[in-house]
Design brief:
Helix content is 41%, strand content 6%. With 164 residues, it is mostly helical. The protein has a single domain, classed as Helicase, Ruva Protein, domain 3 (Orthogonal Bundle). The site of zinc ion has 7 residues, from α6. Keywords: Metal-binding, Zinc, Zinc-finger.
């Protein structure tokens, strides 16, 4: 989908469209390569990549089997490639499911198609482990420890700070 920077004020501040043909593995590699941001924060930053929100960034990371706290610049070439594939499949699936649905059905359909987001305490559809939640920035994220963090639950920074 082409964007005209003159059409909508502020649109020039958006990052590339991840479903555009020119969003290649190399494009993604150049974005993550110089970033010391945790990958979860990078994915949902509209100025870096446009169109991946809080929910879909959780989904992308589960598909890519990657810890949300991983620092972007530490990704290997294989991990960048896996992430690129995960972004494309996750967003295309979401578009496919949304197509043809009435607006009132969209919210429930969106949730039913999600693998980890909003599913804290439920079983992971891939491995059966319990989906966990941890605070992230101004909200929370959901992930599967077995699929994404080598079976180790992530430390909740907000909680550890309170316990000190
Ligand atoms: Zn899992």
């Amino acid at each position: 989908m082409a964007r005209d920077p003159d059409e909508v004020p502020g649109i020039a501040n958006l990052g590339p469209d991840p479903l555009a043909d020119d969003f290649t593995v190399e494009t993604l590699a150049s974005i993550v390569g110089g970033s010391r941001t945790q990958i979860k924060g990078l994915l949902r930053d509209q100025k870096v990549i446009a169109g991946i929100g809080n929910a879909h960034s959780d989904e992308v990371l589960h598909v890519a089997r990657m810890s949300p706290f991983k620092v972007a610049a530490t990704l290997t070439d294989e991990q960048v490639a896996a992430l690129h594939t995960a972004i494309a499949t996750t967003l295309r699936d979401a578009v496919r499911r949304a197509r043809g649905l009435a607006a009132e059905d969209l919210k429930s359909e969106k949730k039913s198609g999600l693998r980890v987001h909003g599913r804290t305490g439920e079983a992971c559809g891939v491995c059966g482990d319990t989906i966990r939640e941890v605070s992230f920035a101004d909200s929370a994220l959901q992930y599967c420890p077995t699929c994404q963090t080598g079976g180790r639950p992530l430390a909740d920074r907000r909680l550890s700070r309170l316990l000190k």
